[in-house]
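Q: Here's a chain of 443 amino acids. Please give me its 3D structure as tokens.
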Amino acid sequence: MRVDAEFFSKRHLRVAALLGKARKESIQELTQVSDGNHFAIADEFTDAGVPYYRGQNVVGHFFVEQSAPYFITERAYRAEHMKRSHLLRGDVLLSIVGTIGEASLVTSEAPATCSCKLAILRPRQISPQYLAVFLRSEMGRSQTARFTRGAVQMGLLLEDMDQLFVTRFSEGFEGNVSALVIKAQQELDDARRWAEEAENILISALGLRDWQPPEPLTYTLSARQALGSRRLDAEYFAPRVRGLLDRLGASGRSVRDVAPTRREKFVPAREGEFDYIEISDVHGDGTVGSTRLAQSDAPSRATQFVRAGDVITSTVRPIRRLSALIFPAQAGSVCSSGFVVLEPRAIAPEVLLTYLRLPLVCELMDLHTSASMYPAISETDLLRLPFPDIDAVASGTIVSAVRSAHTARQRARELLQTAQRTVEIAIEDSEDAALPYLITERL
């Protein structure tokens, strides 16, 4: 019952032919299909709480916990109408609106939920790891693209899940694919531990490990001091904030002194492509992705180049720890004007990244934000933030930990790529043809 040319494209017909020759089962048969929250929830968003995943959270993330979600209150999460969208470990989230076809695996047992732009696939007769790999493969993406429909807003309907098929192989083969995914998850867990170690080392080096900030019931300030700061909010003048600023500012240095801004303007050409970094591309682990765009389609906010070793930090909602390090493979990418691009000179980039992601430092940044819908810190205020002296031993250990975390993430990425390619080879050729590739890559 389709007459649109896209449905019968050569790519889709090729995949349909491959699936037609294989043993397969529909997603409807293999999983319990549901979707996320349909109710208005904007008033319940908060800076910390229960993760609330949206369509963009599954883009580029095999494990959804890698992304930087919004958060909602515990009260909103416990509401009766939200219970149907509570996520469980092993759920596979499939984007059905906007970023259609992107899929991500839920690996945490902690409370979490999602929006109605994500389908929740709860495996019943299939490994969640294998299902996630298949959906992210060429064969999975072709099917989700083919069955997308709509007029004003294109989407993938839950009713069509009985027409989306998963190729099945032997229990041993699917088990090997799942094992690669589990190994990748372990590598990412190691990366997270390395990143946490870097933060703990820095906190200790700053003397904040056992720091007890003053918390008086009341405090006062002269009108001259308040007017001089051009602020009248009590939080900005809290003794704990003053105490933290005194500790971090003892060296007399600021972020500007150790890492001035890079201003390398990007002017799009009529031809060619570029890698664009938007705020939503910043991951929760201090890394960042990008999207390949035609230069002729460059957004107006694509304004500045980034180079290897730069640290970019979002001016919008800094409390969300949206800072990232630019690695050599990303040199020459272009980032949004919503970032400040810092070029570390008197400090290692890994140390600067760790410092800007410390919750206490993000709290200081948040105190300088203005506006309510999109609270943002100005570049001037960001560069004025104090930057303490950090001894060489601590700096070296932090650099080593951050680099170890990066290496573990790279290993995880390679394992996931191997899992996906193995499944594609098995579908295109045979399980026997894919096994040597799987074994070689695993070694």
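Q: Can you summarize the key feature?
A: The mean pLDDT is 90.
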